[in-house]
C-alpha cells in the first residue's frame, strides 16, 4: 500500500487540473451540447492527464539528485528513495502508452499533438530546462498544445484570441514559478535548477510584470472585440474582466510575499480569494455565453 501511495504521489493527479485547458475549446466553441464532441474532448483531456503524469514521473527520475537539494521537492518519492529510477521510468512508460491510446481514440490530429507534447517535454527534461527563457517558453508551449488538442478533438479552428490569452497566462505563471524558486532557495537555487543562475537580478520581476500586463490586455481586447460578441451572442463579457484583474493582482501580491508561484495548482486551493476569482470568472462567463440566456 505504501508503494501505491508513493506511485500516486509520483504521477501527481492534483496537477491534472492543468489539463482543463483541453476543455477550453469545447466551452468557448459552444460545442457542449454535442455528445460526440464532448466525448472526444473528454478523451483528449484524459489522454493529457495520463501523458502529463508520464512526464512528471520521467522528470522526477532525471531530477532526483537536484530535487534532494530543494526544501519541498526532496520529499518526492524518487528523491527520497521510496521509488527507484527504473521503476519511475517504467511507470512513466505505462502512463504514456495509456495516454497515447486514448489520444488515438480522440482523433489522429490529437494523437500527433500528444506525441509532440511528449517530445517537447522529454527535450525539456533532458536539456531545455537549463536554457533561461527557453525553459519557460517550453512550458507555455505545452499548454498551447493542450488548447490545440481540445479544438482538434471537436474539429474547430483555435481562436487567435484564445491562443493569445492562454499563451500569456502560461508565460506569466512560468516566470512567476521561476521567481518563487529563486526567492525560496536564494543562493542554493542554481544548484537545484541551473537556468536560475543565468537569470540576471531583477529580470524575473520584469518578466512577470510584462507577461501579466500582456495577459490582462489580451483578455480585455478579447472581451470587447466584435468577433467575440458575434460568436457568443453577447457584448457583455467585459464584465468578467474585474475577476481577471482581481485574480492577477492577488496572485502578484502573494508572489511578492513569497506565498505563491511555486505551484499554481495548489495556490488556488490555498488562497480563498484566488479560488473565488476563478469560480466567479467561470460562473459569470458561463451565465453570459450559455444557451438559453
Question: Can you describe this structure?
Answer:
This protein is mostly helical. The protein has two domains: about 1-160, Tetracycline Repressor, domain 2 (Orthogonal Bundle); about 160-293. The chain is built from 13 helices and no strands. It is globular and about 55 Å long.
Q: What does this entry show, briefly?
A:
The chain has 293 residues and is mainly alpha-helical. The protein has helices spanning 2-11, 24-28, 35-67, 85-106, 108-126, 134-153, 160-185, 189-192, 203-224, 226-232, 241-256, 264-270, 272-289.
Please give a handful of descriptors for the protein shown:
single chain; 293 residues; mainly alpha; Tetracycline Repressor, domain 2; 2 domains; 13 helices
Topology (elements, then pairings):
Layout: H1 2-11, H2 24-28, H3 35-67, H4 85-106, H5 108-126, H6 134-153, H7 160-185, H8 189-192, H9 203-224, H10 226-232, H11 241-256, H12 264-270, H13 272-289
Helix pairs in contact: 3-4, 3-5, 3-6, 4-5, 5-6, 6-7, 7-9, 9-11, 11-13, 12-13
Helix content: over 70%
Integer tally of domains: 2
Estimate the mean pLDDT confidence: 87
CATH architecture of the largest domain: Orthogonal Bundle
Termini separation: 50 Å
Which topology of the largest domain does CATH recognise?
Tetracycline Repressor, domain 2
Return residue spans where pLDDT drops below 50 for at least 5 consecutive residues. Answer: none
Series of H and E elements: HHHHHHHHHHHHH
DSSP summary: helix tally: 13
Beta-strand segment tally: 0
Radius of gyration: 19 Å
Structural class comes to: mainly alpha
The CATH superfamily of the largest domain is known as UbiA prenyltransferase
Strand content: under 5%
Instruction: Please write the CATH class name of the largest domain.
Output: Mainly Alpha
Describe the main β-sheet briefly.
none
Amino acid at each position: 500500500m505504501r508503494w501505491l501511495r508513493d506511485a500516486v504521489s509520483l504521477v501527481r493527479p492534483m496537477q491534472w487540473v492543468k489539463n482543463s485547458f483541453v476543455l477550453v475549446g469545447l466551452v468557448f466553441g459552444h460545442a457542449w451540447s454535442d455528445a460526440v464532441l464532448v466525448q472526444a474532448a473528454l478523451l483528449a483531456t484524459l489522454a493529457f492527464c495520463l501523458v502529463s503524469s508520464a512526464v512528471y514521473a520521467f522528470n522526477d527520475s532525471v531530477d532526483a539528485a537536484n530535487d534532494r537539494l530543494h526544501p519541498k521537492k526532496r520529499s518526492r518519492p524518487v528523491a527520497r528513495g521510496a521509488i527507484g529510477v527504473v521503476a519511475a521510468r517504467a511507470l512513466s512508460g505505462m502512463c504514456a502508452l495509456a495516454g497515447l491510446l486514448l489520444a488515438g481514440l480522440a482523433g489522429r490530429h490529437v494523437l500527433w499533438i500528444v506525441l509532440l507534447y511528449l517530445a517537447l517535454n522529454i527535450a525539456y527534461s533532458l536539456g531545455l530546462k537549463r536554457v533561461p527563457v527557453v525553459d519557460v517558453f517550453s512550458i507555455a508551449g505545452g499548454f498551447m498544445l493542450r488548447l490545440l488538442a481540445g479544438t482538434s478533438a471537436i474539429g474547430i479552428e483555435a481562436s487567435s484570441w484564445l491562443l493569445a490569452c492562454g499563451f500569456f497566462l502560461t508565460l506569466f505563471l512560468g516566470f512567476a514559478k521561476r521567481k518563487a524558486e529563486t526567492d525560496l532557495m536564494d543562493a542554493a537555487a542554481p544548484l537545484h535548477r541551473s537556468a536560475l543562475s543565468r537569470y540576471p537580478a531583477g529580470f524575473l520581476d520584469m518578466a512577470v510584470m510584462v507577461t501579466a500586463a500582456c495577459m490582462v490586455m489580451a483578455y480585455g481586447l478579447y472581451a470587447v472585440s466584435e468577433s467575440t460578441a458575434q460568436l457568443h451572442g453577447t457584448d457583455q463579457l467585459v464584465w468578467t474582466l474585474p475577476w481577471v484583474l482581481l485574480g492577477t493582482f492577488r496572485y502578484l501580491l502573494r508572489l511578492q510575499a513569497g506565498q505563491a508561484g511555486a505551484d499554481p495548482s495548489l495556490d488556488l486551493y490555498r488562497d480563498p480569494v484566488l479560488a473565488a476569482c476563478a469560480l466567479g470568472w467561470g460562473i459569470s462567463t458561463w451565465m453570459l455565453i450559455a444557451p438559453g440566456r
